[in-house]
Amino acid sequence: MAKNIHSDQRYIIGLVNNDAVIINEIYKRCAAKVKSWITFNNGSEDDAADIFQEALMDVYRQAKYKSLELTCPIEPYILLICKRKWLNEIKKKSILPVTNSEEDLLHIGEDTFANADELENQEAQSKLFFRAFEKLGDRCREIIEWSMKGEAQEKVAESLGVTYGYLRKKKSECMASLIKLVQSYKTEE
Amino acid sequence: MNEEKLLTVARYLEGDMELQEKEGFAVQLEADAELQQLVAEYNNIHQTLKMKIAPSVEDKNVQVTLETLNKQYFNSADLIKDLPAEQRADVPVAKLSIAPYLKWMSIAAVLVIGLLIWAPWSASLYEKYGISKEMSVAERGADQPNSLEKAAALYNAKDYAGARKILQPMYMETPQNTLLAYYFAITLVETGKEAEARTVFLKLYNGESVFKYDAAYYTALSFLKQENEKDARTWLEKIPEGTANYTQAQELISKLK
């Protein structure tokens, strides 16, 4: 399945590599537009800043951990993500948007929607996983968190006051119950 | 049944198996599509959660970069808050130096304007449709300001052989300098070295500089100069709508018919 990767993928690569020059270019191309759109839609400057940063962080994570491949230009992609984020936000706060959702985006390609949808799906998934994680018992959460942070198992066992063997066993059990929770959430939806 | 399987997968992936059991499971896994799917799901959940729960140092560094830029781009707004939203979008953010490509963009703009002023007299199509008649070096190369200026002076006086002599060693030294590459290539065309010129243009065309489509255009001209209308045409057609040379390229195509 050969995807047609857009040349703007270079921005994604720059973002993953924390290349300040490239990231600055992303800001230069997109920040002002996001700002004016959000402030025009009853948001504050700070809201715009938060949304923008959140969007870039989402993109960064997808790119780094899920090998995101951009098949559309970066500008409409970021704008669309920010717009959707802000529309979600104001739905929560029950403020009415001034601009109707995506009617003003007619000029952007289908690819952009597909790319933004993909990111949204991944984020929704991520939220669902996290919800399941939070449902776990304290002990399990602690153990999973420690192990994901890459702490040495012996050290973790010691600080939790359990044996190494117990910790290993417990960790597998915790992860198994986490997956089970996720699966049950998925069937609910 | 599922729970049992889940626990086994977890134990396998979390390294909670003795060697023998592990090898046995690996064999089983290879034959069992359902197990494979479970492993994939497990890994996906693990990976996704990990990026939320335990961000790496790099993740945090990116966050810091974003926060810094956020301050630059979002909090300087007090000054422009009173503008209507549409205009606000267009207010450039202060404090940031103009990126080099912008400078080149302005050079390109100057070249285009220069072209509009320069009245093409009747001449061969190559002559008539030439662009970049003037080499302007608004931005001097820090290390060799004088040679670049000298080259520009010769170039503008149409002494292309003289300009080429200066530009060639400079280009060899810094082939990544697109401005240099572009004008050097033009001097090659002007001095009858069309084929060599085209290798330089091709590099520019394959790159992402502001000279990308100028290079395509000049490649076409170099073919035209050699009376190869077919290849000239092919290159002119590569110039997309909305770029500086589009209209001219289209006009030239119509002349070739």
From TrEMBL, chain A:
<dbReference type="GO" id="GO:0006352">
    <property type="term" value="P:DNA-templated transcription initiation"/>
</dbReference>
<dbReference type="InterPro" id="IPR014284">
    <property type="entry name" value="RNA_pol_sigma-70_dom"/>
</dbReference>
<keyword id="KW-0804">Transcription</keyword>
<keyword id="KW-0238">DNA-binding</keyword>
<keyword id="KW-0805">Transcription regulation</keyword>
<dbReference type="InterPro" id="IPR039425">
    <property type="entry name" value="RNA_pol_sigma-70-like"/>
</dbReference>
<protein>
    <submittedName>
        <fullName>Sigma-70 family RNA polymerase sigma factor</fullName>
    </submittedName>
</protein>
<dbReference type="InterPro" id="IPR013325">
    <property type="entry name" value="RNA_pol_sigma_r2"/>
</dbReference>
<dbReference type="GO" id="GO:0016987">
    <property type="term" value="F:sigma factor activity"/>
</dbReference>
<keyword id="KW-0731">Sigma factor</keyword>
<dbReference type="InterPro" id="IPR013324">
    <property type="entry name" value="RNA_pol_sigma_r3/r4-like"/>
</dbReference>
<dbReference type="GO" id="GO:0003677">
    <property type="term" value="F:DNA binding"/>
</dbReference>
<comment type="similarity">
    <text>Belongs to the sigma-70 factor family. ECF subfamily.</text>
</comment>
